[in-house]
Amino acid sequence: MHPDLPSSLAPGRRGGLVDPFGRRVTYLRVSVTDRCDLRCVYCMSEDMAFLPKRDLLTLEELDRVCSAFVGRGVRKLRVTGGEPLVRRDVMGLFRSLSRHLASGALDELTLTTNGTLLDRFAPDLAACGVRRLNVSLDSLDPERFRRITRRGDLAQVMRGLDAAQAAGLAVKINAVALKGVNDDEIETMVTWAHGRGMDLTFIEVMPLGEVERDRMDQFMPLTAVRARLASAFTLSELPDRTGGPARYVRVAETGGRVGFITPLTHNFCESCNRVRLTCTGQLFMCLGQEDAADLRAAMRTSEGDEKLLAAIDEAISRKPKGHDFVIARRAAPALSRHMSVTGG
Ligand code: SAM
Ligand code: SF4
After folding, report:
1. Model confidence pLDDT, tens digit, residues 138-193
2. How far is 261 from 172, CA to CA, in rounded Å?
3. Sequence spans of domains, the chain
4. In 3D, which of 259, 264, 262, 316 has the Cα closest to residue 288?
5. Given the DSSP bridges, would you call strands 199-204 and 257-261 parallel, antiparallel or unpaired?
6. Does residue 288 have its Cβ closer than 6 Å to ligand 2?
7. Fold of 7-342
8. Where are the beta strands (DSSP E) in 119-245?
């Protein structure tokens, strides 16, 4: 048993988390806040109404629920949001969770961030055992970056990237491909990212949450991104699969990797190893479905973890076989919740 886990959470006590389709759940993405210092056009509206503080899991509750998952065999935790680094004392959570890395119960503690606060936090993250992180960046043009994020300062993100790399953190860049917005930068971004030793993944825009603009106008299939890249570079397919929706190619000219995340296709559901926890403690077993389990209630109504563990087991037994996006439905987004709440 790991010394840092209470006996009720000892791994193997109940076995790992295996869903009805035999998939082992080893990866938890956890949103620690719905707030953000940016307002990316595809993610948030200009005047977002954020959740009242009492609805959010406290940092202690976040530690408790993450530790419960680690106790049940989760090997990888990704902290996300909203912007995780705007949550007050989020470093306290990282420090606390790093004990599971030290004990060997956890393989990886990582985060997805917009990078605006990395210049301040990169050394602390590295000290907590974070080895790599994803930074979302959709344009290398300062004006365009400001337009997409409605307020972002590209130079600040660049300082963040410098700080992360100086702290020894491996950085992967995530860029949402937006037709007519950043599609002319696809090749430039590859050359830039690989020149700095960073992988780059393109993401298809997903129909999540209400935002002002019709997302169909910006939708760019990654087949189009890939075709553009194939005419500029020599691409070779890589077998790397992470249990997630990304596929990878190697770019011969740069030596780097490019990933493609096409969440709207069903091709990765068979190997899905992940679940997502919102900042309010709702556990979503599938990004594309509305079904969720209320782990906050399980924690707030009981001091011990038996109820929480039972709620987790029950939720995993309901993990669906696959997801259900409908991007063609123009009138309403397929899912009403925003990515910033669910955790991207
Ligand atoms: N604030 C952090 C960031 O931007 O990296 C973490 C949270 S953000 C919701 C996580 C990822 O989701 C980002 O890479 C963002 O571009 C992506 N995202 C947000 N809304 C999306 C949408 N509607 N479709 C596709 N990706 C989206
Ligand atoms: Fe904030 Fe990330 Fe959403 Fe942009 S994508 S608004 S940075 S949460």
Report:
1. 999 999 999 999 999 999 999 999 999 999 999 999 999 999 999 999 999 999 99
2. 13
3. 7-342
4. 264
5. parallel
6. no
7. TIM Barrel (3.20.20)
8. 132-136, 170-177, 199-204, 235-238
Distance in angstroms (rounded) separating the CA atoms of residues 171 and 135: 7
Segment 231-240 shows an average pLDDT of: 93
Per-residue pLDDT of 32-62, as tens digits, reads 999 999 999 999 999 999 999 999 999 999 9
Q: Output DSSP code: residue 183.
A: G
- In testing the pocket of ligand 1, which one of 86, 112, 154, 225 has its CB within 8 Å of the most ligand atoms? 112
CA of 148 to the centre of ligand 2 (A): 10
> Which residues approach ligand 1 with their CB closer than 6 A?
36, 42-43, 80-81, 83, 112-114, 136, 174, 176, 203, 205-206, 208, 339-340, 344
How many A from CA of 10 to the centre of ligand 1?
34
Number of residues in the chain: 344
**Closest Cα partner for 153 from 135, 170, 141?**
141
Count of beta carbons in the 10 Å neighbourhood of residue 255: 9
Mean pLDDT, residues 69-85 taken together:
98
- Amino acid at site 13: R
Question: Per-residue confidence at 214, pLDDT binned at 50, 70, 90?
Answer: low
